[in-house]
Amino acid sequence: MVTPRLKLVPLDHETAQAIVDNDRTGRAWHEQFPREDDRDGVNGWLRQGDPVFGNFVIVEQASGQAVGTIGFFGPPDEAGTVMVGYGLVEPARGHGYATEALRSLVDYAARQPAARRVVADTEKDNLASQRVLDKAGFAKTHETDDACWYALAL
Length: 154
Prior knowledge:
Blueprint: E1 6-10, H1 13-21, H2 36-48, E2 55-60, E3 65-72, E4 81-88, H3 97-110, E5 117-123, H4 127-135, E6 139-143, E7 147-153
Parallel strand pairs: 4-5
Antiparallel strand pairs: 1-2, 2-3, 3-4, 5-7, 6-7
Helix pairs in contact: 1-2
């Protein structure tokens, strides 16, 4: 997937393993990539990966560097709900990249017949991530002790 400033590159097993192993050899990755959250999310994908509802590396077109990951936590459930997550290296934050990537991922999900709703959660004190979800069209559905939950009907 290509957006005005980003490329969302589908993960393959070789790249996923390199992220989990933090093996930067020959890779155009930002010096802060992968983050621990990237490694955790990609490791989960390696264990239960779905080729349609997978993960993507976020590549900044201007630099050609990987600056984060975005993707699904697996295929939709019986109700058609799919959960998403995203993250960027610190220097890539605050430029609208997360919103741009999330909108593209939602558009992708909307083209998949099994998906009818996208959900995401974020920590209560992560106001930047809450703004990303708001800007991408999500609505807050509820809060728990430590998280805010959002949903978007497709």
